Amino acid sequence: MQSCRNMDSHSPNKTGELLRLTDITLNYDHFTALNHIHLTIKQAEVHAIVGEHGAGKSSLGMILSGMLKPKSGRIVFEGREFSALTLKTALKLGIEMVYQEVCLNEHFTVAENLFFASAAMNAFRWNKKKHILQATQRLFASYGFEIDPGLPLKHLNLSDRALVDILKHIYPNPKLLILDEALEKLSSPALKKIIAILKTLKQQGLSILFITHRIDDVYDFADRVSIIKNGEILLTDDVKNIDKINLIKMTYTQIVDEKHVEDLNTEFYQLLRYNEAILRNLPVNLIVLDNEKRIKMVNEHCKQHFQLRQDAYVNAPLHEFFAKCSAKVLELLDQACSVQQETTFYQIPILINTIDTLNNIKILPIYDGSFLIGNIMILEDITEYDHLQKQMMLSEKLASVGLLAAGVAHEINNPLEIIYNSLKYLKYRIYDQELQEAVDDIQEEMTSIANIVSNLHTFSDNKQSTSEEVEVNVLIHNMLNLIRFNAKYKHITIHFDPCEADTTIQANKNEIKQVLLNLFKNSFEVMPSGGEIFINTRLARVNGAPVVQIQFKDTGPGISDDNPANVFLPFYSTKKGDEHNLGLGLSVSYGIIKKYHGAMSVENLENSGCQFTMTLPQSP
């Protein structure tokens, strides 16, 4: 690091500059990540950096945070010149960076992550924990956030973790805050609050280098924007001087000759020629309509996503393209294309080309001067995200109830043991036959209570049991041999289609048996007049890792609930009037599968019955 002279000609008081980069070059081996970068950040401004993936945005931020050392160039910060910064120097200068990945310790509490390394907190060594809790409570209260400071970070969702990470870097009152795609992880309410906080800090003198790929955020938040492409600054200008369409075009596309599109009116054809790269190559599902609500272009990403053919959409009216959607959806889209302003709809069910999806839809009007010539429609497919969100909510519910169950079980066990011992004492001290029978009845009921408590413990216990290699196909075969007579008696036929490949998992054999027996028991109970059960196993890959999948379905009446996944909640049962059914079986089964890093889901089948799918990591 070179910490040279003060440079009066670059004094922030005279120029309004906080930071100037001159001729910065960075190489990764033989690859040039940044090539002769020149950039100025003013005091109290939000300067956005946009560009394609791999353009060099994050590398630029890490040079300023001291994580990377440039090959050449100069860094001038508040008039002081450096050839490179270290992490320590950057922090001393007042530069804080929030990286793409949340850099916190998930085993620490929220308060410890915020203030563990704080010099001010370390002064209170005699009662440090108390002071960091109080400091965190004051910080959250001042910003209007409701997060438990004593909660371990691993119990927070991604949005709250990102929020803590941002607040950790805001609290030291930096002069320059670098946000490397840090706002993208925030939920909508948290994003609004953080934007408001950052705008207030900017008014107090904070400068922000805002690295993002979300163009809308640039127009909501930034003062100036620089486009970086192939490691070079393509353009720097005030945000207000660049319209959104041109910014997207310059950031993500290259101009090439426009392909011929039939029957375009002159104005719309000119727009297509000017912005063809946006329409064809943006990595979103994008549809362009003319002002008569006819489809003029669907980009390549959208074609692939919905498996469209060329003749399926060219010049088609909007209502024909979405013909299989509900009348309410068509009415919403039609109105949005008529109001001549940016409109967004959330969680809209759309059926296109037999593909059923859940989407957020944004409609942006296109103007030529003051004349409306069409609309851009962006479809964000959130089907998988919605599924994962529901799974996460279910897991959080189960975790919360599990904690409660553990506490209840513990509190019941103590008086239960006292009563049980007292009954044993009475039984052997009283010789009256009638009283002895009464004591036996009470003991039997106490045993039932003990079983309930045991189930509560099983539900709430996340400790890993002794595991072994379990061959799933063999386990199912052995279980079918045991229950085949019971199935025959109940007129239930069981079909098993095993995978031919190895289906070995690492788990506790008895616990996997318990899961399968719960499913058999449920199917037997819902098919009193007989039916069929179908079981199959197969190998698959989830996030690149090999897994064993077990599908279990029956021909019963299915689950009479709008959300079938509710059957995994403890004490939930569709078998009304059955006092012997505690509603814990599937909760325990779900907990067992999750304990071995697997997943368990349920769905009603179209004609009748329901299907459970269990996924467990395949043993190496």
Automatic annotation (TrEMBL):
GO terms for molecular function: ATP binding; ATP hydrolysis activity; phosphorelay sensor kinase activity. Residues 19-255 form the ABC transporter domain. Its EC number is 2.7.13.3. The keyword Nucleotide-binding applies. Keywords: ATP-binding, Kinase, Nucleotide-binding, Phosphoprotein, Repeat, Transferase, Transport. It comes from the Bacteria. InterPro entries: ABC_carbohydrate_import_ATPase, ABC_transporter-like_ATP-bd, HATPase_C_sf, HATPase_dom, His_kinase_dom, HisK_dim/P_dom, HisK_dim/P_sf, P-loop_NTPase. This is histidine kinase. It catalyses: ATP + protein L-histidine = ADP + protein N-phospho-L-histidine. Residues 407-620 form the Histidine kinase domain. Pfam families: ABC_tran, HATPase_c, HisKA, PAS_4. CDD domains: ABC_Carb_Monos_I, HisKA. PROSITE patterns: ABC_TRANSPORTER_2 (PS50893), HIS_KIN (PS50109).
